[in-house]
Amino acid sequence: MRPFKSLRSPSIVLAIESRLTALGLSLPDGAPSHANFLPFRKSGNLLFLAGQICEWNGVPRYFGPVDQGYDLTTAKKAAELCATNLLFNIRLATGSLEGVAAVLRLGAFVAAPAGFGDGPKIADGASELFSYTESCPEKLFRQLPLRKRWRSLPLACHLRRSSTAN
After folding, report:
1. In a domain, 55, yes or no
2. 87-130: per-residue pLDDT in tens?
3. Does residue 52 sit within a domain?
4. Cβ(106)–Cβ(80) under 8 Å?
5. What is the dihedral of CA 10, 145, 61, 25, to 10 degrees?
6. What is the CATH number of the domain that holds 61?
7. What contacts 29, CB < 8 A, 6 or more positions away?
8. Contact 85, 134 (CB under 8 A)
9. Angle at 53 between CA 124 and CA 88, to 5 degrees
């Protein structure tokens, strides 16, 4: 698989990876699939990523469904964990984060009961990780959101994220 053509300078890529480190985050050693599907698929310059649950190196960390008594900070950490798994798969597919021009869509499925209205607040945990920072002036990870409430998710996790990158 040939790597994507870089559209940014190496200093921007280092800024993205430095941002993760500054936030006390790192990418996992792996993001295994729990079903019979591919972690990603390339089509031309598009990269389609499979959904990622809130796990670290294959071990789920947050379980749902979330309900009215949930802690927003904890739930957003679950979304952030999904985002690190997405970044791992982007790097796996492209060879480095340098190969990504932009994240086009970032989907979220939050496990919650009927009538639960805070799904977008929870999903923002990943969006905020991907959002504009002074150290990443190109706004690499501004995206079109897709957010849905779901009654049940794989391995009974809080959240599942998917993404499309170019």
Report:
1. yes
2. 899 889 988 776 677 777 788 888 888 778 888 888 888 888 87
3. yes
4. no
5. 20
6. 3.30.1330.40
7. 57
8. no
9. 85
Q: What's the pLDDT score for residue 150?
A: 53
**66, 153 in Cβ contact below 8 A?**
no
What size, in residues, is the chain?
A: 166
Question: For residue 5, how many other CB atoms are within 10 A of its CB?
Answer: 10
In the chain, pLDDT over 90 holds for what percent of residues?
A: 16
Residue 93 falls within a domain, yes or no? Answer: yes
Q: Which domain holds residue 18?
A: 10-165
Quote the number of domains for the chain: 1
Q: pLDDT tens digits, residue range 3-28? A: 434 444 444 445 666 777 877 888 89
Crossing angle of helices 119-130 and 72-94, rounded to 10° = 40
Range of weakest confidence among 48-62, 66-80, 114-128, 135-149: 135-149
Residue 68 located in a structural domain: yes
| Cis amide leading into 65 (omega within 30) | yes
Tokens of 64: 């749902």
